[in-house]
Amino acid sequence: MREERRGELLATAAEVFAAQGYNATTVRQIADAAGMLAGSLYYHFASKEAMVDEILTAFLDELWAGYDAVLAAGLGPRETIEALVTESFREIDRHHAAVAIYQKEARHLADRHPRFGYLADARRRFARAWLGTLERGVADGVFRTDLDIRLTYRFVRDTVWVAASWYRPGARHSPEEIARQYLSMVLDGIALRD
Amino acid sequence: MREERRGELLATAAEVFAAQGYNATTVRQIADAAGMLAGSLYYHFASKEAMVDEILTAFLDELWAGYDAVLAAGLGPRETIEALVTESFREIDRHHAAVAIYQKEARHLADRHPRFGYLADARRRFARAWLGTLERGVADGVFRTDLDIRLTYRFVRDTVWVAASWYRPGARHSPEEIARQYLSMVLDGIALRD
DNA sequence: CTCCTTCCCTAACAAGTGTTTGGTAGGTTA
DNA sequence: TAACCTACCAAACACTTGTTAGGGAAGGAG
Q: Of A36-50, A162-176, B77-91, B120-134, where does mean pLDDT reach its minimum?
């Protein structure tokens, strides 16, 4: 099957991109990892850019499907944050290579080629989802009011996504367990209450 | 003065590296930003690698000077964490380009060339300083005991250093103010206590 | 058997890469 | 004045990069 082979190649490409960085990765390295020659990749893909493009869009599409489901569920602010965090860690589990690539290269890709404009869109959409929920939580009195909300947003956002840099699927903790502990730290802190 | 010019060139190189990534940056771009031609850089530096090397070592040397001072002060676990975080944000303020480079390229550089072995050393030293303090805090009963300590370590570490990806010197908040709010979130959480 | 599609290889291309070599304007020293 | 050092330029080098063109083996369809 044609689509199947593309998927395999994209998976190995994503792995190499995540490990070495997009720019540091050569087409020949991807071909090596896939057991073929560099030129042969161009039977399946139009360019190196097209590969990252497809990797990132596939990831973002699935991510937003999950996020939209959460946001449409009509939960309270705290429960929404909890659900978003859990969904994020599940996504890191499923697409850990794509997430790592997104983390490292998104900004650079976005303002280099208009082709990747959707990455900037995704960032704005992220901000709306997370910041909106946080603001709602502050208004509802479930989150603290003495914090700079934008600082809090970046704190929560980064806290979640950096995990992709060290998380490897099939590790000691399941995504849900990691999400539970992360949420516990973010919501209640690491200091012991007296 | 000779050293002075080198310092200027390293500063502009660091800025370009931080903005575009090490591999995506060409020597000609650095030379452009410095107002000279590519070859002329090689009067001052042996190679492109030597530039990042010098940028990173200068940053790490200063960082460890600060860390060691904190660790030698004989503070309690909570005060040590607070001091380390504050010191880290000061370092992000002073060396924000170097920190951004370290964040993005350290792992990749470390396992590519033995020249950058000190980056792996730095990571181990980081772990000892942070993890040790956290363990001491758990033993002393100032930090929670129900969390995976290694997860907590990565949480605190990443939480602090990702800030380099968005922080720009001279922004709304001073390093000390950011450190204060970060510490407040990490230690006490963002949820409102009842 | 023949035709056609799928999937890959061989071989090369042009552009861009880090780096080197030889030279030179201008200031400092003797 | 002469010798010298500093800081740069001009031009090229060898190599790697992403990409392309043409071809061919394998296998299913008619």
A: A162-176
Q: In terms of CA atoms, which chain A residue is nearest residue B25?
A: A23
Residue written as token pair 């903005």:
B19
| A102-110 mean pLDDT | 93
CA atoms within 13 A on the CB side of A161: 21
| B chain contacts of residue A173, beta-carbon cutoff 8 Å | 148, 151
Q: Any atom of strand D under 7 A from CB of A26? A: yes
Interchain contact, A156 vs B182, CB within 8 Å: no
> Nearest residue of A to residue B165 by CA position?
A158
Domain residue limits, chain B? 47-188
Q: How far apart are CA B159 and CA B147, in angstroms?
A: 17
Burial of A67 (0-12, 13-18, 19+ CB in 10 A): buried
A169-189: string of b/e by CB count within 10 Å (b at 16+)?
A: eeeeeebeebbebbbebbbeb
**Is strand D in 7 Å reach of the CB of A33?**
no
CA distance A135 to A137: 5
- Domain B47-188 class, CATH top level: mainly alpha
In the predicted model, is pLDDT for residue B192 greater than 90? no
Q: Whole-model pTM?
A: 0.93
Q: Residue B75 pLDDT more than 70?
A: yes
H or E segment and range at residue A56: helix A48-71
What contacts B91, CB < 8 A, 6 or more positions away? B59, B62, B63, B66, B99
Q: What average pLDDT score do residues B90-107 get? A: 95
